[in-house]
Write a structure and sequence with these properties.
By secondary structure, the protein is α/β, with parallel strands linked by helices. It has eight helices and six strands, in the order αβααβαβαβαβαβα. It has one domain: Rossmann fold. Helix content is 35%, strand content 17%. Strands 3-2-1-4-5-6 form a six-stranded parallel sheet, with helices on both faces.
Length: 217
């Protein structure tokens, strides 16, 4: 029996569907992750194009956008905790360096919010849930990287905080194709809806344009 058939026979994999108040979350599209030469880097040209397609829609419709970046303030990376022992490439994520800036190919808007985080989930140790609650967001559209790391952690936390996580499967990426595929399968079966860019755009165009959107930081 195929994996998907096995899970669905046991009640997994039902769709959450879209809500009424979405926000777009772009995870860690920093130079440290988009430059293939750097320790954490990979070629994300295709994903950047997809993300920009989504950004053009949400900016036009005044839908909130949250970018996350990983930045460590302390010289010895003490604010990375034990994680630094697991992956020493974190040394490239020091605050104030070019590596922690959002890739210039990304269409960052003037009202977009930037969430600074230290670990995988966009929710861990940040104020994003307060911001989402203030805006009455019920649907979090998730893009960026990596699928098996920060994307997955964010999606799991999102559903635990009462949001509908929508992972845009052609706008997320991973360094290992096997990890990417398995994570998308696991997310669809248990935690999120995995939807392509085309269908997300169709949904976004159906949302009533906000009259105004205040920057949340």
């Amino acid at each position: 029996m195929k994996n998907e058939e096995f899970f669905k026979k046991r009640g997994f994999g039902h769709n959450l569907g879209f809500g009424e108040k979405p926000a777009l979350c772009v995870i860690d599209m920093m130079r440290a992750f988009t430059d293939p030469v750097l320790p954490f880097g990979m070629n994300q040209e295709r994903e950047i194009k997809k993300i920009n397609q989504l950004l053009s829609i949400v900016h036009a419709r005044m839908i909130p956008v949250f970018f996350s970046v990983v930045r460590y303030e302390e010289e010895n990376l003490a604010d990375a905790g034990w994680w630094f022992l697991k992956q020493t490439g974190l040394i490239t994520l020091k605050a104030g360096t070019a590596e922690t800036e959002i890739d210039p190919r990304i269409q960052l808007g003037p009202r977009d919010s930037i969430i600074k985080k230290k670990f995988a989930s966009v929710f861990f140790g940040t104020d994003i849930i307060s911001r989402l609650n203030y805006l009455r967001i019920d649907t979090l559209i998730i893009t960026g990287g990596t699928t098996s790391g920060c994307v997955r952690a964010t999606a799991v936390d999102a559903i635990q905080y009462g949001l509908r996580p929508i992972v845009v499967y052609d706008a997320v990426s991973d360094r290992a194709s096997s990890a990417h595929i398995q994570s998308l399968f696991d997310l669809q079966m248990k935690y999120a809806d995995c939807v392509n860019t085309k269908n997300v755009i169709r949904y976004l165009k159906s949302i009533k344009k906000e009259e105004k959107h205040e920057k949340t930081f």
